[in-house]
Amino acid sequence: MVGSNGLCQSFYKGNVSREECCRRGHANRAWTPEDLSSGELFYILAIRQGAPNCQPCQETCEQVKCEEGKRCKMRNGRPKCVCAPRCSSNRPQHKGPLCGTDGRMYRNHCSMLKYNCRHNKKVEIAYFGRCQKSCDNVICTDNKNCVVDQNGMPHCVYCSIHCPPAHSASQMICGADGVTYESFCLLQQATCRKGRTIGSAYHGPCQGHITCQNLTCSDNKKCLVNIKTKRPQCVSCNMDCSDYGALKVCGTDNQTYSSWCKMHQTACQMGVVIETQHAGACGTLGDAFNVDYYDASGINDPSTE
């Protein structure tokens, strides 16, 4: 791509003709006739901040092919693919604010589509209206049920799970609620009906006097003790928190954690079960959780662009 200094600042492929380099019609792709060795390439990109004789592949929008949800516009004399989601064709019947699956409120569906485009995200509609911290005020459509996830965030999901008959005792699972379920599928059904994550404690039927001392966890899981119920629970402690977003949660130990994953890591270190008390920092229940991300992200109304 051509930088503001007029140099080619990103390296895609070497030893190619201009025709081959520019074939795909990318708006920001450029070509240079300079034949550089790997050592020269490193010096030019790292020290000089770009290769000379940089020739943009496209001078106008005429031959530019933008990905879905974008259109070509001229910016500073050069073609550029900018976000332009088809809001009219994707618009739901509901008008007004909605809560995304990232736990943030968007002014409308179009602003969420534009945010996804600009930030390369895949946020979907969790439910319509302002974001909530429980299912109490969430109205689900299309025969969906409200379920709270491990982050304490409500979601509208379909509960019509068909579970085949369980034919073996080996399929039994002891739920974290102390109830024996004949299969994992039936545990999922119960979670949907209850509206809150139940989770599995261990394989097999629940046993009244079992402890972490005489419970063998499978699949490299670690046994933690639930302080409230005194029941053991096998959990996976080998987690990479870099894959989790920075959505704060308040734990049942009244501590604020930067994410559910960080809370889970602390639980594994301490050997006790810490659950989500509610989404957000401890002591911040209420409307402060709602963020109009349409305004906060600086996203413009696509109808005015």
TrEMBL record:
Q: Does the keyword Repeat apply?
A: yes
Taxonomically, the superkingdom here is Eukaryota
Q: What organism is recorded for this protein? A: Lingula anatina (Brachiopod)
A GO cellular-component term linked to this record? extracellular space
Q: What is the lineage of its organism?
A: Eukaryota, Metazoa, Spiralia, Lophotrochozoa, Brachiopoda
Keyword Oxidoreductase set for record: no
Q: Which Gene3D superfamilies match?
A: 3.30.60.30, TGF-beta binding (TB) domain
Return the protein name.
Follistatin isoform X4
**Residues of the Kazal-like domain:** 84-133, 157-208, 235-284
List, in alphabetical order, the Gene Ontology terms for molecular function in this entry.
Answer: calcium ion binding; collagen binding; extracellular matrix binding
